[in-house]
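dumping this here before i forget
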Amino acid sequence: MKIIIEKNFEAMSETTKNILLGHMSQDKRVNLSITAGNTPVEVYKKMVEIVKDSPNYANVHYYNFDEIPVENQAEGVTITDLRKLYLTPANINEENIHPLTVENYADQDKRLAMDGGLDAMLIGLGGDGHFCGNMPTTTSFENLTYKIKVSGEEPWFVPDMMETGLEFVTMGPVSVMRVKHLILIVNGEKKAEMVKNVLQGPVTEEYPASVLQLHPNLTVILDEEAASKLDR
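structure:
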């Protein structure tokens, strides 16, 4: 595990952008899975300035690692957010976008293997210790890509759009551990305690992201606030 601690959100975003572009600049097909949400917003702004309409990055293919369907909407929450944050502003060719959905999730691991596997995955950390859609008490460290049904009794925060009975899909711990390079980004003091738990505590399904400690090529990028409770 390599931990990089930057002064602030801007600096950690710049570092993350540089690492991703390093992967994307290779002279071969590059398979990249990226996260939605607030943490990577500045990363994507920086990347759009470089990637948009550039033939140098036509080799990069994009995959989402989880998805929440929305009734009467063509695409789910994750890919919709990724389009808004990065894929559309960067003018990514539709042929290079490979959505994971509740319809095709059972084929995700086979599809990735046939495509050569994921070269890198950018992920965030939930305040409850989840990563991707791997939630406390609902995941097993033995899961490949799988489907979860919302019961209404979850011990973790359930967003309003995830009504009881809703099914969503995520790449499981086994699938994620197959990625060649994992990049975990976390910012803010409110996640400092969980950062310590998942990086320096025991590997436990209570905090699903703790399994990332076992990955042979994990890079963690934090701002000083998120790193404030780590044992240095």
